[in-house]
Structures are given as C-alpha cells and as structure tokens.
Amino acid sequence: MEATLVRELRDTVDPGYVHDQPSEIISYSYDGTFQQRRPDLAISPASTEEVARIVQIASRERIPIIARGASSGLAGGTIPESGGIILNLARMDRILEIDAANVCVVAQAGVVTLKLQQAVEKAGLCYPPDPASSRQSTIGGNVATNAGGPRCLKYGVTRDYVIGLTVVLASGEILRLGGKITKNATGYQLMQLFVGSEGTLGIVTEAILKLAPLPRARVTAVATFPRLSAASQAVSRIMGSGILPATLELMDGTTINVVEDFLHAGLPREAEALLLLEQDGGDEAVARADVERMAEVCRSLGAAEVTIAASAAERDQLWAARRAVSAALGRLRPNKLGEDIVVPKTAIPEMIEAVREIANRYTLPIPVFGHAGDGNLHPNILFDLRDLDEVRRVESAARDIFRTAIRLGGTLSGEHGIGTLKREFLEEAQGSLAVQVSRSIKRALDPEGLLNPGKVFPTGRGTDGFLADLPTLAGATPG
Ligand SMILES: Cc1cc2nc3c(=O)[nH]c(=O)nc-3n(C[C@H](O)[C@H](O)[C@H](O)COP(=O)(O)OP(=O)(O)OC[C@H]3O[C@@H](n4cnc5c(N)ncnc54)[C@H](O)[C@@H]3O)c2cc1C
C-alpha cells in the first residue's frame, strides 16, 4: 500500500494501531478454518467516528474492507480474498450501559461475548446467545454471523436479541437503527438486514441487545444410547412432547470416543450416541420435572443410562465433554471442515444416517454433534490438507451433506454463516431469485463491492473443486 495512504490512515487512529509489516499482518490472515491470506494492512479504530473515517478513505481509494472481531469464524469470513484492509474492531470493547429497567445492554462491537454475559449476570440479567467460542468471539462478530449456541433452542439466536445497531455504511455514513425498544413496526426493519450479513453490507460498531431474566435454576442430565437412531428419535419425541428444553445437544459415537481419548472422563465408548439435556427457569422443581420427563422419553426409547446431575459440580462435568469436542477433534486429523447444516427435527435420524453413509463412501472420519433440538448438526469432516486425494473426497462429502440437508427440507448453515466455504451452494439452498434479490440489496448498499468481497455470493466457478480455490494455512492451494 502506498506510503502516503498509510500515513493518512495513521492520522485517523492512534498510529500504533496501523500495521502493514508482513510480521505484523500475519496475525490478521486467518480464522477458525484452515484458510489463510494476508491483508495489505490492518487497522484498529477506537470509535465509530474513526471507523467512518477509515471507510471513507478506503471507499475513495476503492480498497476492500474486511471487518474482523476475534476471527473465530468457521466460514472463512475474515480471510481477505483480494487483499485490502482488515478493520479490527477488538479495541472497541466497552460495555457502554447496562439498563436494567429497559432490560437491555449497550455495547461496542469488540466486546467479548462472555464478558458481556458475565457483566449482565451481575445485574441479575442474562444474555442467552452462547456460542461455544464465547471466550473469544465478539458481539460484532456474533451479530454479523447471527451466532447461536446450545441455549438458543429455548431462547433464540443473536437476531432475536438485537434491538438497536450503529452501522457504518460503505459510503462512510453512520446509520443508527432501532433503540431501547422491543416493539417496532416503523418502516422496513433495516436493522435485521445487517444481522447475519457477514460484513458485506456494513460495519457494526455498536449494538443494543435485549436481555432476559437470569434463570435461578438449572437441571442437567445426560442420556447414553446403544443406538444412534434411538437418540435421534428421542430428540423429535422430546420436542413434540410439549417441553421446550433449554438445551438438547447430541454427540455421536465417533465424537464420544474422540472426547474420551482427550478427557478420560469415563464416557461410554460403546454408546452410539449421547444426549445432553437441560432445563432452566425460576423454579428448581419445575425444571427438574421437565428433565425427569425427558429422561423418561429417553428410557422408553432404549437409553442405556440416564444420569441427572446432583450438583453444580456434576453439571459442569457433564458439560465438560460437550465443551471439549472442538479441541478433541484436532487429535484425529490435522484439519477439519466443520459443517453447520439444519434439517427439520423429524429428519434428524435420516440426516445422521446419510452422514454415516457418506463417511463410509469417501472413507473419511465424520463425527456428528450439535444442537439437535434445533435440528442444527455439525458433521465435522476430518482430513489432512496435504493429501490432495483426501481433499477431493472432502469436497465430495461436503457436497453430498449439503445436498442431503437441502433435499430433507433443511439448509446449509444454522449459525456459522456462508463465508467462502459454502458460497458455491447458496443458489441450491436459496433458489436463484433469492440470490438475485440479495445481490440487489448488496449493490444498493455497497455499489463498488468493497465490503468483504468474495464472501457469501457464489463466484460462478461452480461447486467442483470449491475447496481447491481457497488459500490455505500451508500457503499452498490444495488441488
Ligand atoms: C471452537 C469454536 C466454537 C464455535 N462455536 C460456535 C457456536 O456454538 N455457535 C456459533 O454461532 N458459532 C460458533 N463458532 C463460530 C464463531 O465463533 C462465530 O461465528 C462468532 O460469531 C464469530 O465471532 P468473531 O468475533 O470471532 O467474528 P469474526 O470471525 O472476526 O468474523 C466473522 C464474520 O463477521 C464479520 N464481522 C465481524 N465483526 C464485524 C463487525 N463489527 N461488523 C460487520 N461485520 C463483522 C467478519 O467480516 C466475518 O465475515 C465457533 C468457533 C470456534 C472456533
């Protein structure tokens, strides 16, 4: 990047927060996937006004801008496809107000999710969206990906909590939407357009988030099943029984074994599936009664064992296995393609069976776990990026998983977004008219295509070799 431009950018923020040296920008070149490409420059503003000024300069110079929170994304969303500026929001990490009377919190985009959750809990309130990455991920990243998590089954995803947003548009103008209000039928709900837009429509700098009362009671149980099909039937039976659990998570046999190798927690290696069940609320007895009923459903479908945690420490132990999944998978193979499909709850047994069959067909380990109560499953295809034959089989397996989910009435992503990894399948999932309408919205808000180019929309190169085009951590492109 030209020295005069770098100087101009250094004048917009504290100059120590503008990086253009290779040794500095390398840490802005990756996300939670196996992709990597360096930006031309990384800049960390401290205010909405600084973001606006940077975007104005980039827009004048026609330089791509990629918003970045913690880069924990699992879709390639922060990888600079064609160079440009990484706009790192991490310095904007202030919780501006916890407004108990209006049951909301006002936070800058760079606030880490867990910090916000802990802060509102001290005020007796709760911010329910709980991505497993909450120790790293930021509120801006959560809004931009419409993040979910185990608790979202009962409480809803990030979208359901956003009541106000400050967004810097591609022009550099500052748009303020919504407010401390929970009902709003005034005009188009523009705010919702930015939720889940993955940095392609505007830069989120501040959010007003609705809160919920902090549940006083939590009761947790784990049920193990000799048959995966019985566990998936239990999911749809529980969801159809009039109970809305706080959490209904599934781990298949491969996942159980990988986690057991990692944790040595005494998980039943012979089980084909495990369900983690939780209910919360204002009353321990009511929550317990729901968990007992869910346990009964599991037993009636052949669960080998159902254990209800007797204390908070036991509950934490039950959760430890679920929380360890991502780290544990890294022990099997060096790389993973973490999918995020959603299917109707009744289609879970068929979807899981199909993933097993796909794993056999392409001789790849594909553990399945996820938010089964939402029909949101994470088949993780494990592989070695250096093995080109394996990479091709991974592409075929991912394609078959996407197409099965779509055929069963589901979709590509429940919470991670599209990024680069699923873009070639967008039309199959949404239909060409929906993609055309989305392109018109993108053109209206970002006519020069400078906000996170290359993300979400199909490139036109087709689905064959869709991994082969991606820049990788090894610096080499597979395929
Ligand atoms: C171990 C692990 C577990 C995970 N578990 C979950 C889970 O349970 N649920 C879940 O939903 N996700 C999960 N994720 C994925 C990821 O953490 C989420 O997508 C999260 O919301 C990303 O937040 P971030 O701050 O890291 O965003 P980033 O990764 O930095 O960015 C993600 C996308 O949002 C855009 N973006 C970021 N900030 C802004 C902003 N301020 N304005 C506009 N666009 C912006 C980026 O350009 C990019 O497209 C997990 C990831 C890991 C590594």
Key phrases:
binds flavin-adenine dinucleotide; Alpha-Beta Plaits; Uridine Diphospho-n-acetylenolpyruvylglucosamine Reductase, domain 3; disordered C terminus; 3 domains; single chain; 479 residues; alpha+beta
What does this entry look like structurally?
The chain has 479 residues and is of the alpha+beta class. It has three domains: 214 residues, Uridine Diphospho-n-acetylenolpyruvylglucosamine Reductase, domain 3; 112 residues, Alpha-Beta Plaits, CATH 3.30.70.2190; 85 residues, 2-Layer Sandwich (Alpha-Beta Plaits), CATH 3.30.70. Helices cover 34% and strands 19% of the residues. It has 16 helices and 18 strands. It is globular. The structure holds flavin-adenine dinucleotide (FAD). The site of flavin-adenine dinucleotide (FAD) has 37 residues, from β3, α5 and β10. Flavin-adenine dinucleotide binds next to β3, α5 and β10.
Question: Concise description?
Answer:
The protein is α+β, with helices and mostly antiparallel strands and 479 residues long. It is 34% helix and 19% strand.
How are strands sequenced across the largest beta sheet? 15-12-14-13-17-18-16
Alpha-carbon distance between the two ends: 31 Å
Class from helix and strand fractions:
alpha+beta
Radius of gyration: 22 Å
Largest sheet: 7 strands, antiparallel
Basic shape: globular
Strand-residue proportion: 15-25%
Our count of domains comes out at 3
Catalogue the ligands. Answer: flavin-adenine dinucleotide
Count of separate DSSP helical elements:
16
CATH topological fold name of the largest domain? Uridine Diphospho-n-acetylenolpyruvylglucosamine Reductase, domain 3
Number of strands: 18
**What level of helicity do the residues show?**
25-40%
> Average pLDDT value?
94
The oligomeric state of the chains shown is: single chain
Second-tier CATH architecture of the largest domain: 2-Layer Sandwich
Low-confidence runs: 475-479
CATH class call of the largest domain: Alpha Beta
